[in-house]
Design brief:
By secondary structure, the chain is of the alpha+beta class. It contains eight helices and six strands, in the order ααβαααβββαβαβα. Strand 3 and strand 4 form a beta hairpin. Pfam families: Nitroreductase.
Length: about 220
């Protein structure tokens, strides 16, 4: 037995009908989630973003190390710096780093090296992974860092949608410009940049479909 304290945990036992209804309602809500590239400049209360980040931080993590930092950017000057740096990397990607096949696969999504949403959205959330923790006595190891941060990012995106906002999973590569601009400590690495806000009145999304259940699941 562990020497650390444990507390009781329960969940209400629901009827099969209520379980089915809950799962159906949540699925149908999440199925309306779309990646948005056209954001309104309409402000969003800071407390909403705080709640969203707290929700993301409920994600499971290796040894409960919670190896993530969510850097929230609302400063117009900082957003401008990030956009300039991100577009520089994207220009190099589209002009040589990315294969012809990759560019063809992106064509239906309408993406290019121009990223105005990085300035239009009221908030940017940069997700950083902590390769290790820094303490006065030295480095402390984190476990399953990529998996843990991936889970937290999924919670983050779901929380953004549930709150009534939109986001875009932006991953310019390489992303170390974020570490430099935001002056993050040496144990942190940027993995994801999400503009967060309302869609603009002119917002459109690609007419694409998600794969059906039988294509994404195997039952044994």
């Amino acid at each position: 037995m562990s020497s650390h304290p444990f507390i009781s945990h329960t969940r209400p036992i629901l009827s099969d009908a209520q379980l089915l209804e809950n799962s159906k309602v949540f699925y149908e809500e999440m199925d309306t989630r779309r990646t948005v590239r056209h954001f309104s400049t309409q402000p969003v209360p800071k407390a909403v973003i705080e709640n969203i980040i707290q929700t993301a931080s409920t994600a499971p993590s290796g040894a409960h190390k919670q190896p993530w930092t969510f850097a929230v950017i609302s400063s117009p000057e900082m957003k401008r710096k990030i956009r300039i740096a991100a577009e520089k990397e994207e220009q190099e990607n589209y002009q040589g780093r990315m294969s012809d096949e990759w560019i063809r696969d992106l064509e239906p999504l309408g993406t290019d090296e121009n990223k105005p949403f990085l300035e239009d959205a009221p908030y940017l959330i940069a997700v950083f992974k902590k390769a290790y923790n820094i303490h006065p006595e030295g480095k402390q190891k984190n476990y399953y860092v990529n998996e843990s941060v991936g889970l937290a990012a999924g919670f983050l995106i779901a929380a953004i949608h549930q709150a009534g906002l939109c986001s875009l999973t932006h991953t310019p590569s390489p992303m170390n410009f974020l570490e430099k601009i935001l002056e993050r400590p040496k144990n942190e690495r940027a993995v994801l940049l999400l503009p967060v806000g309302y869609p603009s009145e002119e917002a459109v999304v690609p007419d694409i479909q998600r794969r059906p259940l039988e294509d994404v699941s195997v039952w044994y």
